[in-house]
């Protein structure tokens, strides 16, 4: 069982990119794939992904790099070190939730994170053009991957 989980806040511009991607991928849901949107606390992910062998997270990033930059992380290979940049409007940042999940051994067998660098996180703003373009690229990538995975399991 696989899951794609889009993260973010629908009312804060580029922060909604994970939700946008997940909403566009909902048509791929099947017996083998569940597509979810998650606007809650990142810590809730430790429960949300239980029962899935492979999980792909999609979120906005604020690393100070070029807007729209798409990055991929194999979270099982990461050494999570929370920093001041991990500050969040949530009680737990995504990095802190992932660090706790790794410590508690609450990860699926495969765990991926795709991020798209945002720049506009103001309340009521829309997705930036470059963020939306990168989101469309990611949608194509994930759609192709799922199409290949479906063919392989037949």
Question: What would the keywords be for this entry?
Answer:
five-stranded mixed sheet, alpha/beta, 154 residues, Rossmann fold
If you had to describe this structure to a student in words, what would you say it looks like?
By secondary structure, this protein is α/β, with parallel strands linked by helices. The chain has a single domain, classed as 3-Layer(aba) Sandwich (Rossmann fold). It contains four helices and five strands; from the N terminus they run βαβαββαβα. A five-stranded mixed β-sheet has the order 2-1-3-5-4, with helices on one face. It is globular and about 35 Å long. About 6% of the residues have low confidence.
Kindly provide the radius of gyration, computed on alpha-carbon positions and rounded to a whole number of angstroms: 15 Å
Overall pLDDT score: 88
CATH architectural name? 3-Layer(aba) Sandwich
Describe the largest sheet: 5 strands, mixed
Spans of at least 5 consecutive residues with low confidence: 82-90
Strand order of the largest sheet: 2-1-3-5-4
Order of helices and strands: EHEHEEHEH
Topology:
Layout: E1 2-7, H1 17-25, E2 33-38, H2 45-48, E3 54-61, E4 70-74, H3 94-103, E5 110-117, H4 129-153
Parallel strand pairs: 1-2, 1-3, 3-5
Antiparallel strand pairs: 4-5
Give a brief outline of the structure:
With 154 residues, this protein is an alpha/beta fold.
């Amino acid at each position: 069982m696989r899951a794609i989980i889009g993260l973010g806040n629908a009312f804060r511009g580029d922060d909604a990119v994970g939700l946008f991607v997940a909403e566009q991928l909902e048509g791929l849901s099947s017996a083998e794939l569940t597509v979810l949107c998650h606007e809650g606390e990142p810590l809730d992910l430790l429960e949300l992904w239980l029962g899935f062998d492979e999980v792909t997270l999609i979120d906005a990033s604020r690393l100070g790099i070029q807007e729209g930059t798409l990055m991929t992380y194999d979270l099982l290979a990461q050494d999570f070190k929370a920093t001041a940049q991990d500050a969040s409007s949530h009680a737990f940042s995504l990095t802190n939730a992932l660090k706790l999940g790794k410590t508690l051994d609450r990860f699926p067998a495969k765990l991926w994170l795709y991020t798209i660098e945002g720049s506009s996180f103001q309340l009521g703003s829309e997705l930036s053009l470059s963020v939306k373009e990168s989101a469309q690229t990611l949608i194509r990538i994930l759609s192709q991957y799922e199409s290949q995975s479906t063919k392989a399991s037949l």
